[in-house]
Specification:
With 140 residues, the protein is an alpha+beta fold. The protein is 28% helix and 40% strand. It starts with a strand and ends with a helix.
Length: 140
């Protein structure tokens, strides 16, 4: 029998995923981490990016998160995300528009722009588009 770990992915709005998984991959602050059952306890911040929940040898479920916190216990993985979206639910047109708006704001030299906010919005839009691209390459 394959060992599993319980995974909860929760955003500010709602619970996105709750169930057993063989493995979880997440964009931690210092790089991507892979969490298997009975992983050592840890807490880390998450960057915007893709979380993959491997529920079986043949099925993996991708999600986009805009950042948050990852808590790992030996039998429980909790992801508390600012925003979490199933990869298949990402609105590509909206992500492209957000990317264009952020790029325009960063190009504005008038000094009326919050560059940190524009950079964060650009990073989030780019990661949404990358998550969609990976989903398509995997045939999802």
């Amino acid at each position: 029998m394959v060992m599993t770990v319980h995974v909860d992915i929760v955003s500010a709005e709602k619970e996105i995923f709750s169930g057993a998984a063989e493995m979880v991959f997440a964009p931690a602050e210092m790089g991507e981490v892979g969490i298997a059952p009975r992983h050592a306890p840890m807490i880390t911040r998450l960057n915007p990016g893709e979380v993959r929940v491997k529920v079986s040898a043949t099925e993996s479920q991708p999600y986009f998160i805009s950042g948050g916190i990852l808590e790992v216990q030996p039998h429980l993985v909790t992801i508390l995300a600012d925003t979490a979206i199933r990869a298949r639910d990402i609105d590509e047109a909206a992500a492209l528009q957000a990317k264009a708006r952020a790029e325009e704001a960063l190009a504005d030299k008038s000094g009326k722009v919050d560059y940190a906010t524009a950079q964060a919005q650009l990073a989030q839009a780019i990661m949404q588009l990358r998550t969609l691209d990976r989903l398509r390459k995997r045939g999802g």
